[in-house]
Design a protein that fits this description.
Blueprint (H helix, E strand, L loop, with lengths): L26 E6 L8 E6 H37 L5 H11 L11
Antiparallel strand pairs: 1-2
Helix pairs in contact: 1-2
């Protein structure tokens, strides 16, 4: 799904992308903290753009968390199957590594 994003920071999406001013009720001025970068980033922009950015970031975090939980669940299932003798430990390790996309899958031996 392609998302049309207002790449012109500080521009209002409701006023034909004119500069947002302090007179507008949606105008926000503040500082953003990004997880990857340690430095705060000052901003002046429309609150609607800020809300959209925050929703997108929350969605991405939720997606990655669900993906990590799924991978962990699968690895735990292979460990239990190995402990119960349903699968040879090296086969369980190979299957678990394949699911979580480890590059060293071929190096795992019995």
């Amino acid at each position: 799904m392609a998302i049309a994003k207002n790449n012109e920071k500080g521009k209002c999406p409701f006023r034909d992308l004119k500069a947002c001013s302090e007179k507008c009720v949606f105008y926000r001025k503040g500082i953003r903290y990004q997880e990857a970068a340690g430095d705060p980033i000052p901003f002046e922009e429309c609150a609607i753009n800020i809300i959209a950015d925050n929703l997108e970031a929350m969605h991405n975090r939720t997606y990655m968390l669900q993906k990590e939980v799924g991978e962990t669940k699968n690895v735990m299932a292979f460990k239990i199957m190995s402990d119960l003798g349903m699968v040879h430990p090296s086969e369980a390790a190979r299957q678990a590594a394949a699911i979580i996309n480890l590059p060293d899958v071929k190096k795992i031996s019995s």
